[in-house]
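Let's practice the habit of predicting before peeking. Look at the sequence and jot down your guess about where helices and strands might fall. Then scroll down.
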Amino acid sequence: MELWQIIVLAVLQGVTEFLPISSSAHLILPSQLLGWPDQGLAFDVAVHVGTLAAVIWYFRQTVAQLTGALFVDTTQRRIGPDSGLAWAVIAGTIPAGLAGILLNDVIETTLRSGLVIATSTMGFGLVLWWSDAVGRRARSLDSLRLKDALVIGVAQALALIPGTSRSGITITAALFLGFNRESAARFSFLLSIPLILAAGLLKTLELIEQGGATDWAGIALGTGLSFISAVICIHLFLTFLERLGLLPFVIYRLLLGAILFLMLL
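Done guessing? Here is the structure:
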């Protein structure tokens, strides 16, 4: 890839991974609509490492608390608030993990198309708007229970469909369950950690099996840019979410979907 293509794709990954607008759609579309060369598996691994590092760094205190509480409370056979949230993150990750293992081939061969992306971008955008309109937004993370995490986790499995948006669908599910916007977003970000880690490990194994030459300079640049853009994105999203709401993202998704349909049909 050219230098400017690396920059654009890395920033796209960092920004869209945590906004409810679908990172997979934005990474697939340049190659399909603009004729860009496929970024390749090594670059996918690099930008995923960047976004994983970003969310862990941003929530480093929370991650440390949850990890420590999980270890201590498990050894003492009890569940406290922090270890309960940690178990909720684990439980919410299982449905998407299983779906990814079972349906990966189907997704890669049949669903990575512009038409699917356009449809899911608009359709799940409307569902996001619906959840924000009807949700009570009265619950915080302190009220999160295991059954809530499983419901959100099942919704997260739908993000395997390109254009759905992992953050978008998990925030949608949490809003339907009555959580406020910030709590929905924070749990969505925490849920992303094990899932991005698992996806990165799988892609790394595939990369090792493939072998071949690697553009290490491009890899390093992509990792760094995705990290920086993701940290900025998370901070701004959480800062302005309650003030702006989710309608701007819904409008963006509808416009993007409409443009895609016009380009593809």
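How did you do? Residues 136 and 222 are 40 Å apart (CA to CA).
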